Amino acid sequence: MLKTPDHQVAGHEAGLGKLGPLIDDSGRFYKPLQGDNRGSEEVAFYESFSSNTNIPEHIRKFFPIYHGTKIMKASTGSDHPHIVLQDLTSARANPSVMDIKIGSRTWAPGASEAYIAKCLKKDRESTSIPLGFRLSGMQVFINDESGFYKPHRNYIRKTDPNDVRLLLRKFVSSNPSAEMETGSSLGPDCSLASFVYGGPNGILAQLLELKAWFEDQTVYHFYACSFLFIFEKRLALKDARSNAEVKLIDFAHVIDGNGVIDHNFLGGLCSLIKFISDILSETKECNGTNGQVEL
Amino acid sequence: MLKTPDHQVAGHEAGLGKLGPLIDDSGRFYKPLQGDNRGSEEVAFYESFSSNTNIPEHIRKFFPIYHGTKIMKASTGSDHPHIVLQDLTSARANPSVMDIKIGSRTWAPGASEAYIAKCLKKDRESTSIPLGFRLSGMQVFINDESGFYKPHRNYIRKTDPNDVRLLLRKFVSSNPSAEMETGSSLGPDCSLASFVYGGPNGILAQLLELKAWFEDQTVYHFYACSFLFIFEKRLALKDARSNAEVKLIDFAHVIDGNGVIDHNFLGGLCSLIKFISDILSETKECNGTNGQVEL
């Protein structure tokens, strides 16, 4: 039984006559190949990556498992080729999810002039140029009654650096809907920061593991690729060990590194690491907690 | 007594009716303020930097000493304001010098559309986009008889990633003029690599020190800023301790970091570090030498 994903926060959405990803109940995610050559480029990446013996095992966990391609009935009703991937949120009941596109430049050097102009415009209008990354979508589970805090795409699209800093705090807060009022100190409480961002298995530790790889790897350059941060609030509170996951997704614009590191991705990653470290430092100062943060 | 610098490898050169830097015999370098507001921007940076108490002492050594500004007779013959700086090569007899412009993007977000278009074109035509840095000039001392290997500006301007890799090797070779012949293994011998790039005081160690600062500092964003690598061959061979220096120059496009790291500079720096590490690894493999490289 195929259906549209429950926890998609960014990207094309399947709908009546609209092509978008589907999931099944066995934990698989079906991503329709995009019409231009992006779809085939993404398949080419997954094929290359899954057979590349130079990828360390501890790095593979950051990528969705690839199950090949399949022609199947798409969300539009007609047959269409799909990339079959691991459904990253299938094991989660109420996942909090954040999608962050990495790199101050989202276009590869060999792209067409029209595509470069389009990307450059988006990079300049978003936080990609100033921050080295931009937010593409997010949802934060509050509780069964309130459900999710999920800012609208139109808001996400217009976020400036201060908004991004605030939303990275809201992602690990029990009160993500709380608005800062003038003269009030009521803001996101960051009560989950040390569980989600901190700790030996937290998001910061995982980003640092990836950073070490990106300082050395010259196999791939990842343009317009995103991080997904995923965690389950219930588990975060119950279990000291973090259940937070970091995954990389969207590989339609990956090119050969040709012996050069992916300085564009690495720069954005280091910037994101600094944002998250700052939140952990502030949180530690406020709470007087915890020895879990490892830098 | 003012004269034109002996060891300038990039930038405007003083000449008949042409504004360019001058040096005196007391070790000072006089850089004329550029006509648009670049000159005043650079003065503003030096003023800010020299009085900023958040700059760690071990980082200051990477910047030229600033002695204020002075209105004086310029290379054109008329009075003109100059920035007075430390002459970085004054203590050297036959310095080998390399000028490397850092960052895949040389324009700041707030620049004019015309300026952005001009920079973007240069970034794309050079190695700035693919490598995160580009070569602006170099000279390598060979010996008293042959003097310097100094590739022409027109050649430097057209270097591709492979040329840059080769020139980074030539910079630390005793035979920088040797050309690779088809089927021949005659290439730059990298005989000085471990003395200049390697070792506890070598260029790689200094770049790693700067990298650690750039991972954390959010005070300045350095656009179109360059590294100068300087060493004296005679000293490199005589003394195991490296005499290689790394300096940062050209601050006409430095902007406030606003709490964000300089991911554009950091990405380019990490890419350059990888290039230099690669040369050291290859050299070690070939020579079976040395324990000097510290990563």
Short précis:
The structure is a homodimer of 295-residue chains. By secondary structure, chain A is α+β, with helices and mostly antiparallel strands.
**Largest interface by Cβ-Cβ < 8 Å:** A-B, 27 and 27 residues
Return the average pLDDT of chain A rounded to an integer: 91
Contiguous runs where pLDDT drops below 50 for at least 5 residues of chain A: 289-295
Strand content of chain A: 15-25%
- Large-scale geometry of chain A: globular
Helix content of chain A: 25-40%
Query: Which class do the helix and strand fractions of chain A yield?
Result: alpha+beta
- Architecture (CATH level 2) name of the largest domain in chain A: 2-Layer Sandwich
What does the model show?
Chains A, B: Inositol phosphate kinase with a broad substrate specificity. Chains A, B: Keywords: ATP-binding, Kinase, Nucleotide-binding, Transferase. Chains A, B: One of its GO terms (biological process) is inositol phosphate biosynthetic process. Chains A, B: It catalyses: 1D-myo-inositol 1,4,5-trisphosphate + 2 ATP = 1D-myo-inositol 1,3,4,5,6-pentakisphosphate + 2 ADP + 2 H(+); 1D-myo-inositol 1,3,4,6-tetrakisphosphate + ATP = 1D-myo-inositol 1,3,4,5,6-pentakisphosphate + ADP + H(+). Two copies of one chain form a homodimer. Chain A is α+β, with helices and mostly antiparallel strands and 295 residues long. Chain A folds into two domains: 22-86, no CATH class; 95-287, 2-Layer Sandwich (D-amino Acid Aminotransferase, Chain A, domain 1), CATH 3.30.470. Chain A has ten helices and eleven strands. The radius of gyration of chain A is 19 Å and the shape is globular. The first copy, chain A, starts with 21 loop residues before the first strand and ends in an 8-residue tail after the last helix. Chains A and B meet through helix 4 and helix 10 of A and helix 4 and helix 10 of B.
